[in-house]
Specification:
InterPro entries: Atg22-like, ATG22/LtaA_families, MFS_dom, MFS_trans_sf. The chain is mostly helical. About 80% of the residues lie in helices and about 0% in strands. Helix 5 runs antiparallel to helix 15, helix 12 runs antiparallel to helix 13 and helix 13 packs antiparallel against helix 14.
Length: about 425
């Protein structure tokens, strides 16, 4: 695996978690599950626009829950030995309920959404602590490269179980293998969970919490005190606060497009097979582009490349308004593929550079709360607009405003090299 050369064992182990967990992102968040759910809801007599709205409401609910508990758990996780424990809990939760999706009766779309909520809580919760581990596995100088490499490996690695799942589903649809399309999708859920577990093993073996706060007194009480101090620090530390505000808006649009793209495509009448093939191609293209963003960031800075990513997404939302055919969906998907991984990777590495290392999970807790609360707004915006207008295109187009606001605020954020050192943060 040449892509892993020139990186340390810790950096590689951390990145391989992305290789494994991204199978969840493509199969459950973006591809197979939304199609499976839409079919289940249709079988249950739910209107297409309503089922898309219910999915949006569900995403909003679990992101709201995680946004509330993220900073609190993140603060506790900064104590010695706690980060890995929280990571493990959410990892087990995610893997368990991803597997359980395979055993839900096809006509029970409501139970599907409940299990999806629990699986998503596990997956996104584990990612909060996974992101926080970036300060433990690399240096500031290498952070954008390692972060981009993680996303790139995630896109590349996720294509393998996803391709296997597509093959099984297509063979079932053509009755080449003696199982139904429904059971083929269930097999895909199990494949995803197994893949996720296997490539998480190096993370558990080799990645350790290097930066931490020593335990003192009552962990819960002290954690809330530190959480309050951190909030004050964020407000006083202009670079961090402005970046989080910009991130709040633009990442909302990114997350909404990722989580609702297949539901949107289904509403346009695109077949499940066409959607799966397009999404597979998107993963293949997104991997190299995530690496490209990391390399270009070394030359042009992370901030300039974030501008590029936001502009691409503004074009995506505008083009989506006129989406009509599978060719249009292909064009849209390829545009998303060029910037999806890059904008996420550089956001993570930029933030990792400007926060105190020993309090990384506290600050990544706020990074999470800004990102997750933002992820409530986008799906709700799409859901409400789709129901009011009866047309999903209006909802997707409305996301443009989030990218524009994020872009404007980002122009006010100093480059990391011009920001004051972390140890100059005013302590409360």
């Amino acid at each position: 695996m040449n892509i892993l050369k020139k990186f340390t064992k810790e950096e590689n182990s951390w990145s391989l978690y992305d290789w494994g967990s991204s199978a969840y992102s493509i199969t459950i968040t973006t591809a197979v599950f939304p199609i499976f759910y839409k079919a289940s809801a249709t079988a249950g007599g739910v209107d297409a626009a309503d089922s898309t709205a219910y999915l949006g409401y569900t995403i909003a609910i679990f992101t709201f829950i995680l946004a509330l508990i993220g900073p609190i758990l993140g603060t506790i996780a900064d104590y010695r030995g706690m980060k890995k424990k929280f990571f493990t809990f959410f990892f087990v939760l995610g893997v368990t309920f991803t597997t359980m999706l395979a055993f839900v009766p096809f006509d029970n779309w409501l139970l599907l959404l409940i299990f999806y909520t629990l699986a998503a809580l596990g997956a996104t919760g584990a990612n909060v602590f996974y992101d926080g581990f970036i300060v433990d596995v690399t240096t500031n100088e290498r952070m954008h490269k390692v972060s981009s490499r993680g996303y790139s490996l995630g896109y590349i690695g996720s294509t393998i179980p996803f391709l296997l799942s597509i093959v099984i589903i297509l063979l079932a649809q053509r009755e080449i293998i003696p199982i139904s399309s429904t059971n083929a999708s269930r097999i895909a859920f199990v494949i995803t969970a197994v893949w996720w577990v296997i490539f998480s093993i190096p993370m558990f073996k080799n990645v350790k919490q290097i930066h931490f706060v020593e335990k003192e007194g009552n962990l819960i009480v002290e954690s809330f005190k530190r959480l309050g101090n951190t909030f004050k620090e964020i407000r006083q530390y202009r670079t961090v606060f402005l970046f989080l505000l910009a991130y709040f808006f633009y990442i909302d649009g990114v997350g909404t497009i990722i989580s609702m793209s297949t539901a949107y495509g289904s509403d346009l009448g695109l077949s499940a097979t066409s959607l799966l093939i397009v999404l597979f191609a998107t993963q293949v293209v997104a991997g190299p582009f995530a690496l490209l963003y990391g390399k270009l960031a070394s030359k042009f800075t992370e901030k300039k490349m974030l501008y590029v990513g936001i502009i691409v997404y503004i074009i995506v939302c505008s083009y989506a308004f006129f989406l009509d055919t599978i060719v249009d969906f292909w064009i849209l998907a390829m545009l998303v593929a060029t910037s999806q991984g890059g904008i996420q990777a550089l956001s993570r590495s930029y933030f990792g550079k400007i926060v105190p290392k020993e309090n990384s999970n506290e600050f990544f807790g706020f990074y999470n709360i800004f990102g997750k609360f933002a992820s409530i707004m986008g799906p709700l915006l799409v859901a409400i607009t789709a129901q009011v207008t009866g047309n999903s295109s209006y909802g997707v187009f409305s996301l443009v405003i989030l990218f524009i606001i994020g872009f404007i605020i980002l122009t006010k954020v100093p480059e990391p090299k011009t920001a004051p050192p972390v140890d100059q943060i005013v302590k409360s």
